[in-house]
């Protein structure tokens, strides 16, 4: 089996990078044995693929997203396991800046389809992470998994005001690709779909740009398409105690195979951009409960000043109203529930009526959606002043297994093995 120089090799590698290239194909147990690190040194560099937890969760959020949900069309359990093994091998290569298959885009037999689609040739790893999750629909009679469905993977309730479109909701398996280059993210999803031909089909997908949350204290807080800083009080990778309590599933939760994993909720939230843009600044700030410029809680001066819900203005009224988004989403209003958010802005053209089809593709990880996302979202759906300007049109819930330990492991081994 031939060995090929990685995409990153085309940009020049230091000694450490050259060692990775020389280590061989993905079957080698030594290919990615560097100790895990929280940060890539630049936006071009790779993140480790192997580890206790999947990358792409607490990894510092990248700038671009390609998210896909698949339906499994094979009814053969062995074929599904084989696909997960093939996907894992490809993901291990792709996240390190290599091509999807060992022969790459041009190294195989000319008479055969290439091992890689080729549109990322010459591009660096760009911080690519790939994160897999399993939807509740996978745990049916097809693969003998019904008794392994975690209690925390319970169907989400119907929330007031949501207008979900079934065709862009749910799915048996999801893959989240995040990178600093959109072509790298799209290339990764395209190649996984190519490898899965005949075993899975794409149910729906979503492109995202401009992360709307920071997942590390090293990152500045980004803005959503309403112009406000988003996710100021998000869980961060530095919050070790909170991550253990609120993010990572444990064997004590009732599903041994999910220990070290997490539960992902996705929601596509369409924004009434044009209506919002005609709303006064003071009303916009009252709806969010923060000032638009600095991101400070109303009544405070700096973004990270503690929110004081009891503080009142000169008129004797609370600075932060009862229906303000920040009040209703705060852990103190939801039984101390925290979420780790990794959302992205989206603009999917226009709706044909002169309005942008735009908004937020919300992604949140947690230990148990029943205790975290569900109460937070129910609180918001019932009372949030922001509801006048948004509607939820897509929903997904996925169990994301623990990380891949080494080259002999694969996505979902704890479930299928």
UniProtKB/TrEMBL annotation:
Originating species:
Nonomuraea jabiensis
Keyword line: Heme, Iron, Lyase, Metal-binding, Oxidoreductase, Peroxidase, Signal
Indicate the segments forming the Dyp-type peroxidase N-terminal domain, all copies. Answer: 54-209
Q: Spell out the molecular function terms from Gene Ontology.
A: ferrochelatase activity; heme binding; metal ion binding; peroxidase activity
Q: What is its EC number?
A: 1.11.1.-
One example of a Gene Ontology biological process annotation = iron import into cell
Q: What is the lineage of its organism?
A: Bacteria, Bacillati, Actinomycetota, Actinomycetes, Streptosporangiales
Q: Which NCBIfam families match?
A: Dyp_perox_fam, tat_substr_1
Protein family per UniProt: Belongs to the DyP-type peroxidase family.
SUPFAM superfamilies in UniProt: Dimeric alpha+beta barrel
Q: What does this protein do?
A: Involved in the recovery of exogenous heme iron. Extracts iron from heme while preserving the protoporphyrin ring intact.
- What name does this protein carry? Deferrochelatase
